[in-house]
């Protein structure tokens, strides 16, 4: 975690970014430990206003141009899920979830677990936009995906499924311990812990599952790169990974069973 800074240093930081109000409270230590990104506006126009269909960052102020251009009629949260809507009919069936995770390179057991977690827990919330009667097929509906937003998350998606650049940048400002633009395993765990809300066990579990799956999918040398995480949010990276796997060259990031075997073998050597 960040080393503590004196109030004079904090004041200098905020003044340099044109801020004339306090961003740290002396009697709340965590406001100093988890420091906000103060310079986002230098790279992204009006970062506190959510983008309906663009996931942007300081390094990518235009977002995923081609991808978002093709799916611009969908919110960023919907774009995040479109990979699993295999026939683009607006509904994700359990077998769509399973096949999608398999195409990303996850094993049978994890893909089956993901299918259970996602379709059992998120079918009814998204179904409520259309009917109070539960869906017999446990479909997850793209059109009302915002109703599947859970607590204890990063807040990068707003309640309607738009993308908040400031919240995305804050994840790295607050939790990227060595400020290298990547989140290590401990950083991710600290972030999940820092975002936990009281009396929200489902949100806690969902956060661990989602960021755990993200780490397994895109980590390299134990860290998740900022650009990869941005593309996780808009879903564009899922299509890239599937394409790499289908072409036979495979995805060059992530952590699979063979990585675990090699890790255990190295420790026992």
TrEMBL record:
Q: Which residues form the EF-hand domain?
A: 163-198
Q: What UniProt keywords apply to this chain's record, in alphabetical order?
A: Calcium
Q: Name one Pfam family in it.
A: Caleosin
Task: Tell me the GO molecular function terms.
Answer: calcium ion binding; monooxygenase activity
Q: Which PROSITE patterns match?
A: EF_HAND_1 (PS00018), EF_HAND_2 (PS50222)
Look up keyword Calcium and say if it applies: yes
Supply the InterPro entries for this chain.
Caleosin-related, EF-hand-dom_pair, EF_Hand_1_Ca_BS, EF_hand_dom
Give a yes or no for keyword Calcium in this entry: yes
Similarity section: Belongs to the caleosin family.
In Swiss-Prot or TrEMBL terms, this protein is called Peroxygenase 3
Q: Which source organism does the UniProt entry give?
A: Diplogelasinospora grovesii
């Amino acid at each position: 975690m960040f080393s503590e800074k004196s109030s004079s240093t904090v004041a200098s930081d905020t003044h340099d970014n044109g801020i004339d109000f306090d961003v740290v409270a002396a009697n709340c230590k965590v406001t100093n430990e988890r420091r906000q990104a103060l310079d986002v506006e230098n790279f992204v126009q009006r970062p506190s206003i959510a983008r309906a269909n663009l996931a942007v960052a300081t390094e990518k102020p235009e977002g995923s141009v081609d991808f978002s251009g093709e799916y611009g009629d969908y919110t960023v949260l919907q774009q995040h899920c479109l990979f699993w809507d295999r026939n683009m009919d607006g509904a994700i069936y359990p077998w769509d979830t399973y096949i999608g995770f398999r195409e990303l390179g996850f094993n049978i057991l994890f893909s089956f677990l993901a299918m259970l977690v996602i379709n059992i827990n998120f079918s009814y919330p998204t179904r409520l936009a259309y009917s109070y009667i539960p869906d017999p097929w446990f479909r997850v509906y793209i059109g009302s995906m915002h109703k599947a937003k859970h607590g204890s998350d990063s807040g990068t998606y707003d309640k309607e499924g738009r993308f908040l650049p400031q919240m995305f940048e804050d994840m790295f400002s607050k939790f990227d311990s060595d400020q290298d633009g990547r989140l290590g395993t401990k950083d991710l765990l600290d972030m999940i812990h820092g975002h936990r809300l009281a009396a929200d066990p489902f949100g806690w579990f969902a956060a661990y599952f989602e960021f755990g799956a993200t780490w397994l999918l895109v980590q390299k040398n134990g860290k998740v790169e900022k650009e990869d995480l941005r593309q996780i949010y808009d879903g564009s990276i899922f299509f890239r990974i599937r394409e790499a796997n289908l072409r036979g060259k495979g995805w060059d990031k992530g952590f699979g069973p063979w990585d675990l075997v090699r890790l255990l073998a190295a420790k026992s050597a």
